[in-house]
Amino acid sequence: MRIRMEACPDGVAVIIPKTVAICAGLRGGETAEVEATAGRLVVRPVLLTTLADMLGRITPENLHTEWATGAPSGVELL
Asked: What is the distance between the alpha carbons of residues 26 and 22, in angstroms, rounded to a whole number?
């Protein structure tokens, strides 16, 4: 598959086709590692592995408000 690279102020931008990104586990807006090895570009998703990593990604834009779950329907303790 051939793609076109675009010049940007700090380097080169590569658009990864959606089907390739899905197969590689890459998602927009997430962090990835990039390295050049033997003339090849390798891109790997960075997996969040700790609670601190996940909590660090909370922003005012993606933080939801409280929501009601309704009255107890079984033997829940409140």
From this structure: 6
